[in-house]
Specification:
With 436 residues, this protein is of the alpha+beta class. It is built from 15 helices and 16 strands. An 8-stranded mixed beta sheet has the order 1-5-6-11-10-9-7-8. It has a 5-stranded mixed beta sheet with strand order 13-12-14-15-16, with helices on both faces. Bound molecules: adenosine-5'-triphosphate and magnesium ion.
């Protein structure tokens, strides 16, 4: 290609916003189907939310001093000058929607959503600027039984996807707003006395969002935190009882977990339970699913005080995990049959017969040769389509009111003749489908 200055610039997708190509979509569809099945099995209902929301919604819900709001949002004024943001997550939109549509008058609500999210981050494996999440939000449930339900439900999904042995569960409790405030003071007192030893990010957070220092990746800061006051020791009695009950429910369900006292999550709206499903298979991008309780958020956004619990999982990371586990093959989308049309009258016959077969066997995947060509070149295309069978219609076949059928995936199988009226039964028998 020319590299002269006036050469036309090649048009490319935005960095970190990759296309998902036909070779990849079967794995996506498989993952999406598994998610839909599992969530449906617990009677969760889907909600579809817009990709664009008023910027204020995210600033108010996620918190001003968070990674997302400080540096990751795609925000811009629209043509009217109103501040718009491409959604960086789904919880805020979901709360906005349930409020707007009066859905909190019918509690509890168990909802899920799926789709792209946008964050301005440094793209790398498992981290993109447009990525996809499945999120679950429930409203109106106070007890830890709902957290337990979310966790057994996600554990079931991991088993269904074949990645259960690659993820582990970490949980923590952030306590009530009051107990968190008391803990914050204790932590700030401890860290202020050692401010010189803190990394720069943590020093900045000391004033703005000190709890986030707990999940600093800096080794020196982590060493300093080993003797710091612990959130778990500052829990109020009710939060402690809530956490103990959750732990006992998880144990009864046979779900193993570890308590990670440094787990605080990056969003402001969490209180009490927080958790992450983490993996060692994806390097630094180790969190595949994260969530917790957010009892204050609905009121924060102007609604009636309503408990909320939710989580979101990253689909790209789950697909990478499935790939690592060798379970990402997904569904077979190759045609069952490729029609080789070797006579001028063949397309007419194949179109009509093809439609009859599709009526009778709706699950059948057939590709008709378009654009003519010799038998040889059509057979080559049939082979490249990955079809299982070639159905060949030539002048001999038409004269005999038959088609020829050849197996394409087994070496040396004979070509056989099948009567046009017997083709439907033949295909039904050859490809037994669960839906027939
Ligand atoms: P991280 O610490 O990896 O940045 P996060 O705490 O910002 O994650 P959440 O806001 O909790 O992530 O989002 C839930 C899940 O969405 C994450 O656990 C992850 O699987 C996925 N996710 C978040 N950001 C991205 C991204 N930029 N690219 C791909 N997946 C992402
Ligand atoms: Mg992040």
């Amino acid at each position: 290609m020319s590299s002269s200055p006036d050469a036309r610039q090649e048009l490319r997708a935005i960095r970190g916003m990759p296309d998902i190509l036909p070779a990849q979509t079967p794995a996506w569809q498989y993952l999406e189907r598994c998610v839909t099945d599992v969530l449906g099995g617990y009677a969760y209902r889907e909600i579809r939310l817009p990709l664009l929301e008023p910027t204020e919604l995210f600033a108010r819900s996620i918190g001003e001093v968070t990674d997302i709001v400080e540096k990751e949002m795609y925000s811009f004024p629209d043509r009217n000058g109103d501040g718009m943001t491409l959604r960086p997550e789904g919880t805020a939109s979901c709360v906005r929607a349930v409020l707007q549509h009066g859905m909190l008058q019918q509690l509890p609500q168990r909802l899920w959503y799926m789709g792209p999210m946008f964050r301005y981050e440094r793209p790398q494996m498992g981290r993109q600027r447009q990525f996809h999440q499945v999120g679950v939000e429930t409203f109106g449930l106070e007890g830890p039984d709902i957290e337990a339900e979310h966790l057994v439900m996600t554990a079931r999904l991991w088993r269904r996807l074949g990645v259960a042995d690659r993820v582990r569960l970490e949980i923590n409790s952030l306590g009530s707003t009051a107990s968190r405030a008391a803990y914050r003071s204790a932590l700030v007192a401890y860290l202020s006395a050692r401010e010189a030893e803190l990394d720069e990010d943590s020093r900045r957070r000391l004033a703005s969002n000190p709890l986030r220092i707990l999940d600093s990746k800096n080794p020196a800061t982590q060493a300093l935190l080993r003797d710091a006051p612990r959130l778990t020791d500052h829990l109020d009695a009710e939060s402690a009882a809530h956490f103990a009950e959750l732990r006992s429910l998880l144990e009864a369900a046979g779900l193993s977990y570890t308590v990670n006292p440094a787990l605080v999550r990056g969003l402001d709206y969490y209180g009490r339970t927080v958790y992450e499903w983490v993996t060692d298979s994806l390097g630094a991008q180790g969190t595949v699913c994260a969530g917790g309780r957010y009892d204050a958020l609905v009121a924060e956004l102007g609604g009636p005080a309503t408990p909320g619990v939710g989580f979101a999982m990253g689909l790209e990371r789950l697909l990478l995990l499935m790939q690592a586990a060798g379970t990402s093959a997904g569904v077979d989308v190759a045609p069952h049959a490729y029609w080789v049309l070797a006579d001028a009258a063949a397309p007419r016959l194949a179109l009509a017969l093809g439609e009859q077969l599709r009526d009778a066997l709706p699950w059948l995947r057939m590709q008709l040769n378009c654009g003519g060509g010799s038998i040889k070149s059509q057979m080559k295309r049939a082979d490249r389509s990955a079809a299982v069978l070639a159905i060949i219609v030539g002048s001999d076949e038409i004269a005999a009111n038959e088609v020829s059928v050849r197996e394409l995936r087994s070496e040396g199988s004979p070509q056989i003749r099948v009567g046009v009226s017997a083709l439907r039964a033949f295909l039904a028998e050859r490809f037994t489908s669960v839906t027939t």
